[in-house]
Structure formats: C-alpha cells, structure tokens
From TrEMBL:
This is Mitochondrial glutamate carrier 1. PROSITE patterns: SOLCAR (PS50920). Belongs to the mitochondrial carrier (TC 2.A.29) family. GO terms for molecular function: L-aspartate transmembrane transporter activity; L-glutamate transmembrane transporter activity. Mitochondrial glutamate/H(+) symporter. Responsible for the transport of glutamate from the cytosol into the mitochondrial matrix with the concomitant import of a proton. Plays a role in the control of glucose-stimulated insulin secretion. It comes from Sander lucioperca. The lineage of its organism: Eukaryota, Metazoa, Chordata, Craniata, Vertebrata. The keyword Membrane applies. It is a multi-pass membrane protein. SUPFAM superfamilies: Mitochondrial carrier. Solcar repeats lie at residues 4-91, 99-219, 228-317. Keywords: Membrane, Mitochondrion, Mitochondrion inner membrane, Repeat, Transmembrane, Transmembrane helix, Transport. One of its GO terms (cellular component) is mitochondrial inner membrane. GO terms for biological process: malate-aspartate shuttle. It is found in: Mitochondrion inner membrane.
C-alpha cells in the first residue's frame, strides 16, 4: 500500500466537498425541514413539495439557505474524514497482513470520531438557517429573505437561543450572528450542542461506508495492482454512501431535532438523546425515524461518489506537483 500523502488527501477531500455540496444542497435543505416536521403540523408532503414551496416563498436562493456555512466548513470536514480514514487504514495494515473487514471498520470508526470536531458546529449553524423557512411557513406568514441573510419575524424565531423569550421586532440572522450569540450565552458548548447525537450518527456511518466502499471498489479492479475505472469509483461511492446514510437515518433525525434551537408554537424541546428518542417514539411512532431518509440517500450518494472520484483521480497530487513552490524546489 502506498504511503499516505496527507496534503494531497486534504485537497482532494476539500474540492470534493465543495463540488458535492453545491450539487446537492437543496435536497439537504428539504431533508432538514422534513425531519423537523411534527405530526399534525406538516407543511411539506415530500421532498419535491418542499422544494417547490421553498422556491415560491423564498426564491431560488432559498434552497441554498445555510449553504455558505457548509461550503466554508465542508472542506476541512471532508478532508479530515477522508484523510483520517486513509491514515488509520495505512497504520492498521503495517503488520503486513493486509486489510480485513474489521480493520476497515476500525479505520472508519476513527475517521468518524475525528470529523465531528468540524461537523457538529457546521450542522448546528446550518440547521438554524435551513429550518427558519419551515417555521415561517408553519405560521402561514411567508417572509421574503435575501440570499445571504434571513429576515426573521417574531413568529419565525419565537424563542431566543437560551431563554425562550419572544423577539419583539424583526431581526436579521446570519450564521455569524448565531455563532456569536451561542458563544456569548453558552460558550463553546453551545456550538457543540448535539455532539453525542452527531457521534452516534457519524461513527456508525463511517463504519458502514468505508469498508463497503473499499470492497465494492475492489470488485471493479481489472487486477489487484490496477485502480478501478472512473465510473466504478463513482458508483461504489454512491452505493456505499446511500446505504450508510439510510442505515443511520434515525440518528440523523435525533441530531436534527436536538440541534434545532427555534421551535414552532407547539413543538416540544428535548433534554438529550434518550429523551428525544423517547418523545419521538411516543408521539410520532417508529416511522418518524425514517423522515428524510430518501433525501439523505440522494444527498450522500453523489456527495461521496464525487469525493471518491476526486480522491482516486489524484487531483490533489496533480495540484501539488504543479504548484509554483513545488516547481521551484524541483
């Protein structure tokens, strides 16, 4: 196995994350809004209904609400995830016995634990911006929003971040403002709300995804020494990603609910993972844990397919080999 070239892996993961998020973000927005819906308060019937209503009430750029947060932080997040998995795989195969499924699962577990450092605050901020439109629609008071900021009425943001008080006037909310408010009122732990749920989602996801991808990709290799074709790496990433996404969707529903700071008028709050699971089960039934599963599969499949193509095409290696600094040192 070749040595891990960490800078190249970071570049590959970063580019893949930006390209992937740009392509599938509207579906991710629909997933968040569908997951946060309660019984009897459904604003959207399904993914397409959600996207159509979002465009009608918020404009085309309404589908990209919160995308700036993702585009900023997805580079380090995806870079850490892919590079960490490669790093752990490399070191777990040093004994010369090669990779077993168990070792691949351990590497995936390590990658999932590393990425939550970035994933938790990224998701925390993104969810607030994505869900604000649903809260406005639920109150049947559509609000016109600019591409960069949400103009939220007192019905949209009916609770402040820490006290439950009602806002008395419209306020513009951006990811930066939310982060500042959380840091001021709750400290760093405010940004890491839902960390446990994020770990419960991302660690099993990585345990399923990375071994599944590695084995699917291996089937497409003409010989053990050769790489799989471009299309096979993409399809392997799509299949492994969508499978892992659906498998951990119940954890994603719990994470979304826990990280949503602003609730509708009759939406309950949760005190941790166990309380959230219990209340969802009692009030909405087991099917609630599959909310947004289709959307999540559609988001993750191309996201990881693109990531693996970038990774195996060696875009990062090409950039480094042709960088001005490298040419000067050559």
């Amino acid at each position: 196995m070749k040595n891990v070239h960490l800078p190249a892996k970071l570049i590959n993961g970063g580019i893949a994350g930006i390209v992937g998020v740009t392509c599938v973000f509207p579906i991710d927005l629909a997933k968040t809004r569908l997951q946060n819906q309660r019984q009897g308060q459904q604003v959207y019937k399904n993914m397409m209904d959600c996207l159509i209503k979002t465009v009608r009430s918020e404009g085309y750029f309404g589908m990209y609400r919160g995308a700036a947060v993702n585009l900023t932080l997805v580079t380090p997040e995806k870079a850490i995830k892919l590079a960490a998995n490669d790093f752990f795989r490399h070191h777990l195969s040093k004994d010369g016995k090669g990779q077993t499924v168990f070792k691949e699962m351990l590497a995936g577990c390590g990658a999932g634990m590393c990425q939550v450092v970035i994933t938790t605050p990224m998701e925390m901020l993104k969810i607030q911006l994505q869900d604000a439109g649903r809260l406005a629609a639920q109150q049947q008071k559509p609000v016109m929003m600019s591409p960069t900021k949400l103009v939220a009425t007192n019905t949209m943001l009916s609770r402040s971040y820490n006290s439950g008080t009602v806002a008395s006037a419209p306020r513009a909310v951006s990811a930066t403002q939310i982060a500042k408010d959380l840091l001021r009122t709750q400290g760093i732990q405010g940004l890491y709300r839902g960390l446990g749920a994020t770990l419960i989602r991302d660690v099993p996801f990585s345990i399923v995804y990375f071994p599944l991808f590695a084995n699917l990709n291996r089937l497409g290799k003409p010989s053990p020494e050769e790489s799989s074709p471009f299309y096979w790496a993409f399809l392997s990433g799509c299949v492994a990603g969508s499978t892992a996404a659906v498998a951990v969707n119940p954890c994603d529903v719990v994470k979304t609910r826990l990280q949503s700071l602003n609730k509708g008028s009759s939406e309950e709050a949760y005190n941790g993972v166990v309380d959230c699971v219990s209340k969802i089960m009692q009030k909405e039934g087991p099917s609630a844990f599959l909310k947004g599963a289709g959307c999540r599969a559609l988001v993750i499949a191309p996201l990881f397919g693109i990531a693996q193509v970038m990774y195996f095409a060696g875009i990062g290696e090409y950039i480094l080999d042709n960088s001005p600094l490298n040419l000067l040192l050559a």
